[in-house]
Amino acid sequence: MDQKEFRVLIKYCFLRGKNTVEAKTWLDAEFPDTVTGKSTIKDWYVKFRCGEMSTIFTFDQKQRRVDDSEQCLKMIKHNKPEFLHRYVTMNEIWLHHFTLNSNRQTSEWTAQDEPAPKRGQTQQSAGKVMASGFWDAHGIISYLEKEGSSTVAIT
């Protein structure tokens, strides 16, 4: 079974509300001749939760990208300044934010013969925001951000 087929089966388990252990158990029972690693299932679950799109495209999707690219190249060759003046692009990225504490904020006084106090593990990420930027030849047109499941705010 290839990677695309496994991704579909793992997504099926995800959409059915199974956790990663239940998904692994079901896949092992239904497809005993194939081996799916726990880490593979966990990785796909993370991608599904984050809403990441698969980079596996159908032939039609690939052809559409080729056609669009060829059309853009024709327009650039015809009138490059006008094309760049009208062209708008965008990018999305998850921005993680952290709760930072300086060493001074977390320091404690101890006697000379006392051991240093034990510290808890630092929090890796306090949250994340999906940032989307739109720009053209003149600069940024719009910036959107979305935190968790909240609504999109235009700034």
From TrEMBL:
Region (Disordered): 106-127
Molecular-function GO term, any one: nucleic acid binding
InterPro entries with a match to the protein in the record: RNaseH_sf, Transposase-MT_Hybrid, Transposase_1
Gene3D superfamilies the UniProt entry points to: 1.10.10.1450, Ribonuclease H-like superfamily/Ribonuclease H
Name of the featured protein: Mos1 transposase HTH domain-containing protein
Lineage per the UniProt record: Eukaryota, Metazoa, Ecdysozoa, Arthropoda, Hexapoda
